[in-house]
């Protein structure tokens, strides 16, 4: 079955790097995504990676994928207070376009 | 460009009443999804459509929930009768059927059933 897991909470200081981790179980994943949710808002797509890639960089964001271990991470360089939010990893699988989400990681950035 | 539009943004109703949530997807997108977010269950799929046809409704909780997509630019999610346990934030999302299938979310409807 499908299962996506994340740690619940991460606290960092402004200017440091943040690394948010995610594990998944379904070997038929096609794409993996990172979404950001601020309080009272919808989900904002940050980035995604194809399951056959191992890294993708987009400005301050770096996504690493270890397909063997089914481990995904999101690194945010030079974390700012505006990055404080809940971050969700999600996947789509072969034949299923709907997203399966992790439980979300709350990132707190301290000044 | 307008994103996904949902209405109402907030809905407060009494148990037993009918509730209708509305969604307008991004123009040109051929997939539309309804998700629900609660503290207990997180984000979960309710139903999704491709070219206005329901593809997967396995997440619809029970017969009290129904969803329609009469045309490419409009979808509704109806709950009748509503119950307190239906209180949640309901999100609509849309995507193209090609590329990385990126889904773009609306702002959500916060439903409170008293």
What descriptors fit this protein?
heterodimer; A: 111 residues; mainly beta; six-stranded mixed sheet; five-stranded antiparallel sheet; 62% strand; globular; B: 114 residues; four-stranded antiparallel sheet; 0% helix
The portion of residues forming beta strands of chain B comes to over 45%
Instruction: Return residue spans of chain A where pLDDT drops below 50 for at least 5 consecutive residues.
Output: none
Radius of gyration of chain B: 13 Å
Into which percent range does the helicity of residues of chain A fall? under 10%
Counting DSSP H or I runs of 4 or more residues, the number of helices of chain B is: 0
Query: What is the general shape of chain A?
Result: globular
The count of strands of chain A amounts to 11
Q: What's the end-to-end separation of chain A, in Å?
A: 41 Å
Determine the mean pLDDT of chain A: 93
Classification by helices and strands of chain A: mainly beta
- Chain pair with largest interface: A-B, 22 and 25 residues
Overall 3D geometry of chain B? globular
Question: How many strands, which pairing sense, and closed or not: the largest β-sheet of chain B?
Answer: 7 strands, mixed
Low-confidence stretches of chain B: none
Q: How many strand units of chain B?
A: 11
* Oligomerization: heterodimer
Mean pLDDT of chain B: 95
- Percent helix of chain B, as a range, is under 10%
| Through-space gap between termini of chain B | 37 Å
């Amino acid at each position: 079955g499908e299962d996506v897991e994340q740690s619940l909470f991460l606290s960092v200081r402004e200017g440091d790097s943040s690394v948010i981790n995610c594990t998944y179980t379904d070997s038929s994943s096609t794409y993996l995504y990172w979404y950001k949710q601020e309080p009272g808002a919808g989900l904002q797509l940050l980035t995604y990676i194809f399951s056959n890639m191992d890294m993708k960089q987009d400005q301050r964001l770096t996504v690493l994928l270890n397909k063997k271990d089914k481990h995904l991470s999101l690194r945010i360089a030079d974390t700012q207070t505006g990055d404080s939010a809940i971050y969700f990893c999600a996947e789509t699988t072969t034949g299923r376009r709907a997203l399966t989400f992790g439980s979300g990681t709350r990132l707190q950035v301290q000044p | 460009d307008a994103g996904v539009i949902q209405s109402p943004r907030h809905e407060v109703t009494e148990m037993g009443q009918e509730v209708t949530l509305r969604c307008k997807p991004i123009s040109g997108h051929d997939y539309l999804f309804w998700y629900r977010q609660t503290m207990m269950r997180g984000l979960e799929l309710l139903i999704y459509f491709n070219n206005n046809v329901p593809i997967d409704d396995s997440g619809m909780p029970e017969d009290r929930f129904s969803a329609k997509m009469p045309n490419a630019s409009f979808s509704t999610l109806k709950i009748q009768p509503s119950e307190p346990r239906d209180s949640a934030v309901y999100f609509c999302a849309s995507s193209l059927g090609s590329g990385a299938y990126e889904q773009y979310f609306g702002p959500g409807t916060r439903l409170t059933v008293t």
